[in-house]
């Protein structure tokens, strides 16, 4: 998968919310619950799916030490 297609794959949640918003909240120390309260159109399942896709992408690209 190219860098562009990875970005496109994770670029938007179903409701048009940039995935970056989710990661910004988490990086600031906010919980997933805080994020979901701020963006009620996003379900927990959608947010978790984005996180799982990001994790899978990172693990797939990881090299053993």
Descriptive notes:
The structure is a single chain. The chain starts with a helix and ends with a helix. The protein has helices at residues 3-9, 19-27, 32-38, 44-61. With 65 residues, the protein is mainly alpha-helical. The protein is built from four helices and no strands. It has one domain (3-61): Orthogonal Bundle (Arc Repressor Mutant, subunit A), CATH 1.10.10.
Secondary structure elements and their pairing?
Blueprint: H1 3-9, H2 19-27, H3 32-38, H4 44-61
Keywords:
65 residues, mainly alpha, Arc Repressor Mutant, subunit A, 4 helices, disordered N terminus
- The computed structural class is mainly alpha
- What's the alpha carbon Rg, rounded to whole Å? 13 Å
Largest sheet: none
Shape: elongated
User: What's the CATH class, please?
Assistant: Mainly Alpha
- The overall average pLDDT, rounded, is 79
Low-confidence stretches: 1-11
Estimate percent helicity.
Answer: 55-70%
Please state roughly what percent of the residues sit in beta strands, choosing from under 5%, 5-15%, 15-25%, 25-35%, 35-45% or over 45%: under 5%
Here the CATH topology equals: Arc Repressor Mutant, subunit A
* Distance between the ends: 23 Å
Count up the helices.
4
What's the number of structural domains?
1
Helix and strand pattern: HHHH
Could you say what the CATH architecture is? Orthogonal Bundle
How would you briefly describe this protein structure?
This protein is mainly alpha-helical.
């Amino acid at each position: 998968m190219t860098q562009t297609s990875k970005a496109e794959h994770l670029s938007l949640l179903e409701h048009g919310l940039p995935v970056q918003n989710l990661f910004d909240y988490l990086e600031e120390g906010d919980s997933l619950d805080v994020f979901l309260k701020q963006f009620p159109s996003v379900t927990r399942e959608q947010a978790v799916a984005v996180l799982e896709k990001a994790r899978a992408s990172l693990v797939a690209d990881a090299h053993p030490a």
